[in-house]
Every structure is written in structure tokens, then in C-alpha cells.
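Table 4 source record.
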Amino acid sequence: MSVEVEEKHRWRLFLLSAVMIGFVLVLIGQLVRWQIVERERFLAMAAAEHQGARIVAPRRGTIVDRNGRPLAMNVVAYDVSAAPNLIADPYQAADRLWPVLNRPRDELISLLSQDVPYVPLARSVPMSVGATIGGWGLSGITVEPSPHRFYPEGSLAAHALGFVNAAGQGFYGVEGFYNDLLEGEEGVLHGEHDPWGEIIPIGESQWQPPREGRSLVLTLDRNIQFMVEQELAAAIERYQAQSGTVIVMDPNTGAILAMASYPTYNPNTYYQVEDERLFTDPAVGDHYEPGSVFKVITMAAALDAGIITPDTPFYDSGSIEVGGRVIQNWDRSGRGNVTMTDVLVFSLNTGAAHVSTSLGAERFYAYVRRFGFGLKTEVELAGEVPGVVRVPGDPEWHESDLGTNAFGQGLAVTPLQMITAVSAVANHGLLPRPYIVAQIIDQEQVISTRPYLQQAISPEVAKELTEMMVAVVERSAKLAAVPGYRIAGKTGTAQMPIPGGYDPNSTIASFVGFAPADEPRFIVLVKIVKPTVSPWGTEVAAPVFKRIAEQLFLMMNIPPDNVRQQAMVE
């Protein structure tokens, strides 16, 4: 081998050795960086790739009535699904499933015969059904537990409660109003992924537990609510009416004891309701022209302003002109010389219009606002509306409104606004703020609602007006009377507005009354929409009030007036 060839081999060996030594040095440098210099950073990166977090849903708070009876609670239901491509015999599986899932066998066979990886079969089936199916161990059939909102009383107080949808969100009623409090706060579980993707906890410090939702104690009394709903449904059938609402309240505090509307629905099966308008609570979400019941407010304003007394005389000719509009009485007749008490007893539109015009627009509407009309009551129910009250200066207000508004025409109120306003008469002139939640309860504290009252009229005026309302029941609304008890009340018969005027064939019959008159324990508003047997509040709503009042005297242990007054003397 020549010297030249040997020299080439020597250089090749040197270059190869240099390359190998350089590679080894680079590898050693990287190992030093990985194992020593940046060891902690790479460990953190590796851990992060295997770590994860899982959201843990909180438990929704319960809702109970004033006596602790559950109205909304949580139960564990089961969702049943299938992986059809893992089911060997769809016919055999369908034979086992259809009786317990209550689905047609042919329908299940069709679902289980598909070439798909997943198909839902049933949602929120009872625990017993889920346990039964799970115990069979059917290949391709999965049974998974899922939280489910349950209303043990079915449709009872549905409008007041509202409902919770499949996503866990509350709508309408107290479920909607207090959704953020009821649903609680989500928890987070941090940990490492196992080979199947599940989270393995790696320490207590990595567990942030969910905060259970607050629970609510309502002012509703389940027994009174049930009785009221029964009476309302019977009245709708008896008078062949379209719908109706009844509210029972403690006038001294504003606590709502019962609130019912018909037709209603079952919140357990809210998804079966075809017309979503049924979810709206007519007690707070719909307004109507109240008719002659509103004369109580007109009289209260005039008495408090000092422009009339119960005995102030008035000559009723049968008509009166206000702002270019002729106002007549409901029977188109005049009664001659009467008093203000007579105006209320005989429900004279002319007398009410005379009172409101004597007050003047500024004072009249100031009292209307003072009683809460045109404003939300701020009750804890989703979807409340403020009603409609036009006042001077509004584009649509007309001078004639001062006359018609006096007897409840041309303005709109909610049933809750109306009963709350009359509660001020029962409660020595103090207007309560209505409420339906007595307590909010969480793990740390109990927050109790404190009644809020503000003076609407003087105690003396409230007493005078109470006696005028007693005269209404004793002299004209006799179908509302209950033997042994003095009852203060007022009827209303309002025509229903339509484009261009009022429907001559449709009315809203109503009555509001409280008892015992000298020491009120309850106040009741009855509203019946489009009764066909009779249009009059005296003949439709007053008898419903009587039946409810008779039962309330027993349920609330209220003795007859003579017994109660004798006990007070002794």
C-alpha cells in the first residue's frame, strides 16, 4: 500500500473518531441538561401531560313548604342507552327491555338493529328500573345514574315553583328566580389520567368540593294550596270559564299562603307541554283590567285625602261626563241620593268617577302609585310584570281616563298587585311587600325574610274603609258571607278589552275580601276569566271566596267572631 493511500485512511479514521466523539459529547451535554440543569421543568411538563381535571356538579337545593313538606327535591334516576354494534341479538334484548321501559317492542328492535355505536333508549327512568336492567348484564346496554329534579306533589303549586330543565337550569317561579342560589357551585377534581382516561386523585389539596345549592322554605302551606287548587278547578268547571287565579295571603305580613292558577301543568313532565304560555304564572306574569274591585283604592285615596267621609252625599243620576266621555253605571240606572258607602255597596261607576275627579289627576295617580300599581311588587317569582298605568303627560293618557280608571277600566294590574293593595286596608293602612320565600338555608346560616311594610293610608281611614267593605258583603255581595264572621270585601266585573273597545260577551269576574274584619288573618283574591254561566263577580267569584273562607276558618283555627271576642274580654 502506498504512502498516499495510508494517509487517506488515517484521515478518514480521524474524521470518524472526531464525529463520534462530538456526538457523544452532545449526548452527554443533553443528558446533563435533562437530568440536572432543567430536570424540574421537564418533570413538570411530563406530569402536566398526564394530569387533568373533572368538573363535579353540585347538588341542587331543596324546596319545602312552611311546614317542611317537600315540594321540589333531588332523586337519582337512570339513563339507559345502547351500543347496537355490540348487541348480538336485538330481538332478545328488546324482549327483555320493552316491558320495563314501556316502549313498543318493534320500536326497540329497530333502534337496537342499527349499525351505530350509540343510541339513547330512555331518560330519567326510576331507580328500580335502572337497577333491574343493570342487574341483567346485557351486552351493549348501558345504565348510568343521573341527578333528576322531582316534584313529589305533581302539579301542586306548579306556577309558583317553576321547573328545572334537563341541563339543570331553573325556569319560572322560584326555581327560575333563585336559580343561581339553588344550583350551587361546581367542584373540581384534579388528578392524573389512567389508561382509560379517568381521573385518579393525587391528594386532598387537588380536590375542590362542590358547594351544595341553598334550600328554600316557602311561605306556602301545602294543605291550603291543595284546597285552593281543588276549589279553583271546580269553579272553572262549574261556571264553564276559560281560566282563573286564586291567591291567599296574610295581609299583616305579605306572606303568600297559596297561589293557584288554572289551567296548570306538571313540572315533572314540563317537556310535554305544547304551549309554552302555560308556564307563565297569571298571578304575576299577566295583567288585566280589575273592574270595580279597584273602587276600594279610589275610596281609600279620597278618604285619606280628606275630601270625603263614608257618609258624604252624592246624587247619582245614572251617568256622568268626564273628559268628553259619558260614564254610566253597570245597570245603566241611577239611584238618586246616596252616600259614599252606598257607592261602594252598589258599585256605582258614576260615584267612583265623581270621587276621582274631585281628587284631581295629580292626587289620584299619586295614590295609585302609593298602592304599588304600575310597579313590580318585587316578589321572588320569575317573570313578574308591572302592569299598565297611564298618567297625565303620557302620550296615550286622556282626561277621560281619570274617570274610567276610578272603577278599574283603562288600567291593568296583576292579581298579586290587587290583593297586596287591598291588604293595606286590612292591615291598618300598612302596605306589605308580598313574599313567597320565608327562609334561605345553606350549610352556614339561615336567612329569614323580614316583612317590609310602608304606610299607604292612615289607620283611621283603613278602619273606615273596612266598615264600608263589610257593608258591601252584608248588603250586596251576600254570596260571599260566612255565618258567624264579619267579612270585608268587594266584587268586580270587568269587560275584556278588544281592538276598538270591549267585548260585550266576555268578562272577568273577581272578588277580594279579608276576615275576620276587625282582626284579619287572611285575605283572598278570586279571579275567574270568561265565565259563561254568569258574567258577574257577585254570582261567580263571591261564592268561590265563601267556600275557600269557610275552610280557611277551620284550617287556621279561627273561631266565630262572638267566641273570639268573648275570649278577648275574658
